[in-house]
Amino acid sequence: MEDDYLVALQFENALTEAGYDVVDIASTAEEAVQLIPDHKPELVLMDVRLAGPRDGIEAAAEILERFGIRSIFVSAFSDPTTRARADRANPIAWLAKPVADRRLVTTVSTALRDIPGGSDVG
């Protein structure tokens, strides 16, 4: 879930080219949470800053609590206070923006290998 649509498209293209399915892009926490039951992703890429009143940390924590799905945070906000707030979402990884496509794909690939029943197509 990403607040900058162009960045989201860049991530989607990099992951799709690596063989992964990107099920959707959301710009708000509410939209992100609502997409989960229909798509059942193995993991979520989450930005801290999202449009609307709730941020990505809140969305990731709710997604973990309700659906048991963990997130990889991809954000320009990686200060210790923000990262400490994100601990409740039990993130798989944290990538500081800007992030190279190769690093994103490698992180997703590693995360999926470590998820029980996860896939690795990249």
Provide structural commentary.
The chain has 122 residues and is mainly alpha-helical. It has a single domain (5-111), classed as Response regulator (Rossmann fold, 3-Layer(aba) Sandwich), CATH 3.40.50.2300. It is 47% helix and 10% strand. The protein contains five helices and three strands, in the order ααβαβαβα. The protein has a three-stranded parallel β-sheet, sandwiched between helices. Helix 4 (80-86) links the parallel strand 2 and strand 3 (93-96). Helix 2 (29-39) runs parallel beside helix 3. The chain is globular. The two termini are 20 Å apart. The mean pLDDT is 91.
Please outline what is shown here.
The protein has five helices and three strands, in the order H-H-E-H-E-H-E-H. It has helices at 5-17, 29-39, 56-67, 80-86, 101-114, and strands at 44-46, 71-75, 93-96.
CATH superfamily: Response regulator
Give the DSSP E fraction (strand runs of 2 or more residues): 5-15%
CATH C-level class is Alpha Beta
Largest sheet: 3 strands, parallel
Unreliable spans are none
Strand order of the largest sheet: 1-2-3
Radius of gyration: 13 Å
Structural class: mainly alpha
Please report the total strand number as a whole number: 3
Number of domains: 1
**From the 3D coordinates, which CATH architecture would you assign?**
3-Layer(aba) Sandwich
Determine the mean pLDDT: 91
